Amino acid sequence: MTDASSAAPALPNRVHSILTESADMRRRNAAEGRFKLYGMAAIAVSFIVLGIMLWTIFSDGLSGFQQAKLTFPVTLTAETLDPKGNKNRDEMAKVTTVGYGKVLAASFKAELAARNIPTDGVTEKELVEIISKDAPGGLRARVLADPSLLGQTIEMTMLATGRIDGYLKGRVTMQTAERDGNVSPAQLQFADLLIDAGILKTGFNREFLTNPDASDQRPEAAGLGVAILGSAYMMLLVLIMCVPVGVAASIYLEEFAPKNRWTDLVEVNISNLAAVPSIVFGILGLAIFINFMGLPQSSSVVGALVISLMTLPTIIIATRASIRAVPPSIRDAALGIGASKMQTVFHHVLPLAMPGILTGTILGLASALGETAPLLLIGMVAFVDNYPSAPVEGFFDPATALPVQVYSWASRSDPAFIERSSAAIIVLLVFLVIMNVTAIILRRKFERRW
Amino acid sequence: MKDINIEERVVSDHKVKITARGVQVHYGTTHALKDVDVDILSGTVTAFIGPSGCGKSTFLRCLNRMNDTVSSARVSGSILLDGEDIYDKRVDPVQLRAKVGMVFQKPNPFPKSIYDNVAYGPKIHGLTRSKAELDAIVESSLKKAALWNEVKDRLAAPGTGLSGGQQQRLCIARAIATSPEVLLMDEPCSALDPIATAQVEELIDELRSQFSVVIVTHSMQQAARVSQRTAFFHLGHLVEYGETGQVFTTPKDPRTESYITGRIG
């Protein structure tokens, strides 16, 4: 204690009031102020970018949830739809959508005549074109399901064609219609008359969430039904495949595995797996699951297998981190009173790590939900207009996925699909928000304080 | 030191519970414990004292094989519990730890209810056949740990919500609920205030009648107050081991004397 005072060099004697700021202090405060400013600027920029992104998506996509629809009474003339007159479904099925189109056109014209709406500006063909090409198919399915409707007059709401829908939403104008082979200004003027008569109006587009995809000529009928179902199947399969394997692997690596060169190798490879570009997993899926194992193309099961490979490392890394975050004193306490390793893990470590595991899993699933590239390679970008059947066979049926549907619509030429693409992004975002909120709620629920 | 009342100490008629001979511990390349020979008696409180890093906690953790959880630790030599080598290949450390309980430096109750904390040990060891028996064990353990009166109305409350001293007594109750034969305590009072320390010390003295207690402590006053025998460790060596009164009043080794009088440590 005695030799401490002599060795230390004397510090310069600072005679300075604490009420005034020294030059050194001013410099330090300025540096701190600048640093805070950078941080706030970075946050502001990210908020602006996020805002622009959301604004673009919502301004393009929100209209996708509204759709122009025609409502008028349809007389189901039995002579056209059931030429044999015996209400036999097999016989009736011989009448194609062309026949139903004729019925719709006739009813439409009859309604216009009854309401005294002048049709002199438009040709008969243009008049019929206002009804979506999808409408006869819908009517046919309805009649075949219930032949007793034959001969009756029913009030029907059907989609209007995509250009008329665009006109109601401001996407199609008189000027564009003049240059457009699919719609004429006369049709648009006539649409105004229909709106005045209350036959044509926009309503909530439930079909967008339930319909399958539709061809380029019928953007108004295109929906996300198959994509939502396909994504749901994939998430279910990913959950079933990834969570048990991922959590078990994490527990083993973290609590039981000896620390040696082998486990180091495994660890490095798990981290590497998380960094592999997703398109590579797509190639792998194509080569192994489809070409080698012979699983059906475009099916949810192949998509789920590929995405599982990508999600597994994420889940393992998150689970290991939350297992590691459990205080070692809890393990000591359990081991100290004679709990076995297994009991320690399952009675004490896992319950405490649960919130972290759940959050990691859900966030892993959320990123899997948005994964597109590998699905393109395994054929999930195909045009699928049949719903996959119920599980388990449904897992092997062709399906698409939400992000892939966004991609495929965005690459089509009709501007009506751009609107639908943005609307599909909104649906995808809603699902992601739901998953993230679930993660937060589960975290809150399982979190234990000590 | 007035704390030491040599006259009261009667230890000679107790038999040897743990025999350690030539115990060496290596952590990787560090030689943490060198050639330790100790006999721990039943019905006795044995204190391990010494400066930080002297190996006293390491030795304590050898006695219930908690060092097994440290992958770099290697233990050699022999430690016999009632004449049986605890490092024998046939010994399951889990079974050993049911006989040799441990209380840690920092109170570490499970984030469960007070009841579940105490009941956990008896449950996993299958010591009870009915809820009533379990209740009885929980009650008697909490009573032995002098905690019953404070918590009997809130057994369902989380153990982590108790004060530090109460938490440590809960940990002691948890350790004695499995009726161990030896109770190891690794600086059990270092995180406690003087009042809680006094309560725990009183408790240790009472526990002596049923268990052989081994306590690691930094406080020489505490060693003098609660123990009948004291071992002094220095730089991995067991320097001196004997009756507490003798170690504190007439140490045989100059290093012990230096430590006790405050010159090293």
Give me a quick take on this structure:
By secondary structure, chain A is mostly helical. Chain A is 64% helix and 5% strand.
Descriptive report:
The complex is a heterodimer of chains A (450) and B (265). Chain A has helices at residues 4-7, 23-61, 78-81, 89-92, 97-114, 124-129, 135-145, 162-169, 174-179, 185-197, 206-210, 225-256, 261-275, 278-292, 300-324, 328-336, 341-369, 373-377, 402-410, 415-446; strands spanning 66-75, 153-159, 200-204. Chain A has 450 residues and is mostly helical. Chain A folds into two domains: 65-204, no CATH class; 225-446, MetI-like (MetI-like fold, Orthogonal Bundle), CATH 1.10.3720. In chain B, the strands form two sheets. In chain B, strands 6-7-8-3-9-10 form a six-stranded mixed beta sheet, with helices on both faces. Chain B has a four-stranded antiparallel beta sheet with strand order 2-1-4-5, with helices on one face. Chain B has helices at 56-63, 93-99, 114-124, 131-144, 148-151, 164-176, 194-207, 220-226, 244-249, 254-260, and strands at residues 16-27, 30-41, 45-49, 73-81, 84-85, 100-103, 182-186, 212-216, 229-234, 237-243. Chain B has one domain: Rossmann fold. Chain B is globular and about 55 Å long. The interface between A and B is medium-sized, with 22 and 29 residues.
Helix-strand string of chain B: EEEHEEHEHHHHEHEHEEHH
Q: Report, as a whole number of angstroms, the end-to-end distance of chain A.
A: 42 Å
CATH homologous group name of the largest domain in chain A: MetI-like
- What fraction of the residues of chain B are assigned to beta strands by DSSP? 25-35%
The tally of strands of chain A reads 3
* Order of strands, widest sheet of chain B: 6-7-8-3-9-10
Rounded to the nearest angstrom, the radius of gyration of chain B is 18 Å
- Provide the helix percentage of chain B: 25-40%
* Major interchain interface with per-chain residue totals: A-B, 22 and 29 residues
Query: Biggest β-sheet of chain A, characterized?
Result: 3 strands, antiparallel
Assembly type of the chains comes to heterodimer
* CATH architecture heading of the largest domain in chain A: Orthogonal Bundle
| Domain tally of chain B | 1
Helix/strand/pairing class of chain A, anyone? Answer: mainly alpha
